[in-house]
Structure formats: structure tokens, C-alpha cells
């Protein structure tokens, strides 16, 4: 059964809108799923996403979910995750190494 969440997304046309039926991606072996308790929008990164100016992001990557700086709580872990447990809380103040913000994932899991 598919699960859905709310998300603030940016479309290819630089439109920012709240979507109430954004599908949650399936959890893989080395991933964790988090519930975002609080999230800030970064003037630099999120603005660049809206204006289509973020290095490494192409038009094919849209729509993108805004918000990469947040306080999160782990609600599920993949079967091969060893260093993160359900209920752990942490901050996620970064993008992925390639500069892209990936939808549905607040952090890379630790094997």
C-alpha cells in the first residue's frame, strides 16, 4: 500500500506549491525514514532551487522538494542499518555530496 505525505515542491516553472499527496519512496536496505519535526528553508540553497540556479540540478530533476535543514526523528530503518535506531533525533543541515536535494530522503543512512 502506498503512503503519502505533504511536501512543499518547486515545479519546472518555478512555482512553489504545497502538495498533500506526495508519495513516500520505498525504504531500501541502507536507508532510514525520518519524520521532519521542524524544517527551515535556506535563503541560498532553496532560493537557488526556485530560481533554477543550483549547481548540478537540471530541469529534468524537477519537481523538487524544498527544505534540507531540519530536526528529524527516525521512524523506520532498513534491515542493514546498524548505527541508527528508531526514535533517534538529529539535525540534517546539508544536501547530498553532488549538490542535489533528493526528495523523500532527509539523510543518507549509515551502514
Q: What is the element layout, followed by pairings?
A:
Layout: E1 4-10, E2 16-23, E3 32-40, H1 45-50, E4 64-65, E5 69-77, E6 89-91
Antiparallel strand pairs: 1-2, 1-4, 3-5, 5-6
Key terms for this structure?
three-stranded antiparallel β-sheet, disordered C terminus, 5% helix, 111 residues, mainly beta, globular, 1 helix, Quinone Oxidoreductase, Chain A, domain 1, single chain, 6 strands
Instruction: Provide the number of structural domains.
Output: 1
CATH superfamily: Medium-chain alcohol dehydrogenases, catalytic domain
Largest sheet, in brief, is: 3 strands, antiparallel
Instruction: Label the structural class.
Output: mainly beta
Shape: globular
Provide the CATH top-level class: Alpha Beta
Order of helices and strands: EEEHEEE
Give the oligomeric state.
single chain
The low-pLDDT segments are 97-111
Total of helices: 1
Distance between the termini: 27 Å
SS strand fraction: 25-35%
The appropriate CATH architecture is: Alpha-Beta Complex
The pLDDT mean sits at: 76
Short description:
This protein is mainly beta. It has one helix and six strands; from the N terminus they run E-E-E-H-E-E-E.
How would you explain this protein's 3D organization?
The structure is a single chain. The protein has 111 residues and is mostly beta strands. It has one domain (4-91): Quinone Oxidoreductase, Chain A, domain 1. The chain is built from one helix and six strands, in the order βββαβββ. It has one helix at residues 45-50, and strands at residues 4-10, 16-23, 32-40, 64-65, 69-77, 89-91. The strands form two sheets. A three-stranded antiparallel beta sheet has the order 2-1-4, with no helix packed on it. A three-stranded antiparallel beta sheet has the order 3-5-6, with no helix packed on it. The radius of gyration is 14 Å and the shape is globular. Residues 97-111 have low confidence and may be disordered.
Amino acid at each position: 500500500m502506498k503512503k503519502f505525505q505533504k511536501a512543499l515542491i518547486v515545479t519546472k516553472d518555478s512555482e512553489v506549491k504545497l502538495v498533500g499527496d506526495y508519495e513516500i519512496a520505498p525504504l531500501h536496505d541502507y536507508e532510514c525514514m525520518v519524520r521532519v519535526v521542524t524544517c527551515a528553508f535556506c535563503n541560498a540553497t532553496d532560493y537557488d532551487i526556485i530560481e533554477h540556479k543550483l549547481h548540478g540540478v537540471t530541469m529534468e530533476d524537477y519537481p523538487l522538494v524544498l527544505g534540507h535543514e531540519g530536526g528529524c526523528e527516525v521512524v523506520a530503518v532498513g534491515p542493514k542499518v546498524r548505527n541508527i535506531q528508531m526514535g533517534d533525533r538529529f539535525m540534517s543541515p546539508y544536501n547530498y555530496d553532488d549538490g542535489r536535494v533528493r526528495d523523500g530522503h532527509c539523510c543518507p543512512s549509515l551502514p
